[in-house]
User: Fold DUF2232 domain-containing protein from Spongiibacter nanhainus.
Amino acid sequence: MKGRLQAVAVAGLAMGTLVFAWVGAAAAALVMLRKGIAEGGYVVFWALLPAVAVAILGADVGPLTMLLGGAVTALVLRDTRSWPMALLAAVASGYVVAGLLYGMAEDYLASILALIQPMLDQFEAQMQGSMPEIGGGDIAAVIGASTVLWSVLAVMLARWWQAMLYNPGGFRQEMWRLRLPPAMAVGLVIVMLLVANSGTPFRFWGVMCLLPFAMSGLALVHGTVGQLALSGGWLVIFYIALLLLSPLWMALVFAAIVDSWIDIRGRLPQRGK
Assistant:
C-alpha cells in the first residue's frame, strides 16, 4: 500500500515461486481491492511476467491462473461489494481456465497425466479394483477447481489484510454474513448437473460449482458460532471432524443450499458481538 514499487516487488517475487505464489496473488488482489483496476492492473501486469515464466519453463500454470483468477475475483468484489458475486466470478474463471486448457493445451494436459499415471496405477493396485480411466478433461477439471479455490483464498487473504489496515473486524463480519442468494444457488446447481452430464470428459467439471457452497457453509458455521457466542473450541472440533469425516463436506454443501433459502443465521439469537 506504500507504492507501486513495493506492490510489484512483493507480487512479482512471490509469483516466481510455487510455494509463495498465493501470497503474490493476494498482494495483487489487495491493490485491486483498494485502488481499483488502474493500479491493480499495473501490479498484475508486472506479476504476470514471472507467472508466465513459471508456466513456460516450469510447466506449471498454477501461479498464472491463480493470479488472473484472483484479480478478476477481487475486481468483482470491489465493484459489487458482494462475496456471492465474487465467488461466482471465481467459478467463471475456473471454467474459462479449464475450457482453454481442454481446447488448446492437450499436450500440456497429457504431460501432467503421464506424470501422475504411476501414482494412479499404484493406487488402483492398492484398491484391488478397476478405476475409471483418467483423461485430459479430468485434469482440466482439477486445474479449474484449483483456480477457483486458490483465487478465493488469495482474495480472502487480501480482504483480511485490507480490513486489518482500514477496517478492523470488518472481514470477520463479512464472512459471518456470507450467504448465497437463492437464485444463485439454483443456478449453480443447474450448471453443475448440466456440465456433469455433458459427457465423460466433463464428469468432474461440476466440482467447480460446489466450491461456493463449501465457502458459504463454512461461513454459516463461523457465523453461527459467533452469533451464539460459543467457544472457539467448537470450531476446532468442527474442522477436525471435517478432516476425518469426508461425508461432512456434502452435509456442509447441503446446509449452505438450505441456508440460501431460509437464512439460518437470521433466525438465531444475536448473542455475539
Summary: The chain has a mean pLDDT of 90. Residues 1-177 form a domain with the Arp2/3 complex 21 kDa subunit ARPC3 fold (CATH 1.10.1760). The two ends are 30 Å apart (CA to CA). The CA atoms of residues 66 and 151 lie 5 Å apart.
